[in-house]
Design brief:
This protein is α+β, with helices and mostly antiparallel strands and 358 residues long. It has 3 domains: 118 residues, no CATH class; 155 residues, Jelly Rolls, CATH 2.60.120.1440; 76 residues, Phage tail protein beta-alpha-beta fold (3-Layer(bab) Sandwich). The chain is 29% helix and 29% strand. Strands 3, 4, 5, 6, 7, 8, 9, 10, 11, 12, 13, 14, 15 and 16 form a 14-stranded mixed beta sheet that branches. It has a 3-stranded mixed beta sheet with strand order 18-21-20. A two-stranded antiparallel sheet has the order 1-2. Helix 1 packs antiparallel against helix 6 and helix 4 crosses helix 5. The radius of gyration is 23 Å and the shape is elongated.
Length: 358
């Protein structure tokens, strides 16, 4: 095994993150990556061994101790953040670790590090079911609104202690989510595929608009207030039976569903507080000479979808681009065009085929 290969793996942000803080999603990624080439299994074990050896020998006053201190200084300790990234210089310890390896002193290193990415900070806890047909569930465990990104370009600001469930790739005919709690929706327009929000006995149907749904299980009422565009309001039972909407809300109008008596009421003037868009941290998608592998990995985390690609082939490819308003498919088109690749969807993940640096 070439030491250069081991160096590349130690420099890989996603690998170090997985080593330090493994989770089901990263386990699946690296297991799949290793299975693509039998030689990769040994490579992974060797890289793990380096870090573990440094950790185990860090109590000694020497290079290993200094390397371990450097690694620890780079770690984040935000207990509530499930996926938190920041970009900082850290590769000096990688070089030092390789020197230890070349000197024959490296043993094992199975410590993880928090990946670094300035543009991705989200505290919404996400579950990734093994069943590809089961929904992805986001739960905001923090005290601040958190932004959820859907592949169609829609965004949802999830309020504290609220839960959102949806199909990973949405649906071919409709886009549907289930809300338990409160959220502000900004829906990408798609005349051919309505967007449905199920919440507390109500169904809100839209094509593209912004609105709020307050459906806290601990309250008696469900509120839907429209900020822009228009939405159709149904009782869930009526919608499932194919019946007409109870009402259509225009901007600054509100519907209230009284859960106890199952009554719906229309209010021509919505509560002003419901129309206020919550402030949530925004992910910057401006990339300046960034490795393509980093961009793909951030999209994977942003949309909670596994994106599989040949890391060895694309490791040296870099890209300068801005990916803001596009759907996930548009973002992938831009990236694939830049690196002469194609992508396809298979089961619950996206596969990048081919690709090389221009």
């Amino acid at each position: 095994m070439r030491e250069l290969d081991c160096w590349s793996l130690l420099e890989d942000e996603l690998f170090v993150q997985w080593v330090l803080q493994p989770d089901p999603s990263s386990d699946l990624y690296w297991e799949t990556w290793a299975n693509q080439d039998p030689k990769r299994v040994g490579l992974i074990l060797r890289a793990k061994d380096i870090i573990l050896g440094i950790r185990q020998s860090s109590s000694n006053n020497g290079l290993s101790g200094e390397i371990w201190k450097g690694i620890q200084n780079e770690l984040h300790t935000e207990s509530v953040v499930q996926m938190s990234f920041s970009r900082r210089p850290y590769r000096w310890w990688v070089a030092a670790a390789i020197l230890v390896l070349l000197a024959g002193a490296g043993t094992a290193l199975w410590i993880g590090y928090r990946p670094r990415v300035d543009f991705l900070r989200t505290a919404a806890k996400v579950t990734h079911p093994k069943d590809v047909n089961a929904p992805v569930t986001c739960f905001n465990e923090t005290e601040k609104p958190q932004k959820v990104y859907l592949i169609d370009g829609s965004t949802i600001i999830l309020e504290p202690h609220s839960t959102l469930s949806y199909a990973r790739f949405l649906d071919s005919k409709t886009r549907e989510v289930t809300l338990r709690g409160n959220a502000f929706f900004e829906i990408a327009r798609d005349p051919n595929r309505p967007f449905l929000v199920r919440s507390g006995g109500l169904v809100t149907r839209v094509l593209g608009t912004s609105f709020r749904v307050n459906a806290d299980p601990g309250t008696e009422d469900v509120h839907v207030a429209v900020r822009t565009g228009k939405v159709s309001i149904y009782k869930a039972a009526d919608f499932d039976k194919g019946q007409k909407a109870f009402c259509v809300l225009l901007p600054h109008q509100e519907a209230v569903f009284h859960k106890r008596n199952q009554n719906l009421a229309f209010q021509p003037n919505a509560d002003a507080q419901l129309l206020v868009r919550p402030t949530a941290e925004v992910i910057s998608m401006d990339f300046d000479d960034v490795p393509v592998t980093n961009i793909l990995d951030e999209l994977s985390k942003m949309y909670h979808i596994n994106i599989m690609y040949d890391r060895d082939s694309l490791q040296q490819c870099r890209l300068t681009t801005s990916l803001h308003e596009e759907k996930l498919s548009d973002k992938l088109d831009i990236i694939c065009k830049a690196i002469n690749a194609n992508y396809r969807t298979q089961d619950d993940h996206i596969i990048i085929d081919g690709g090389h640096c221009p």
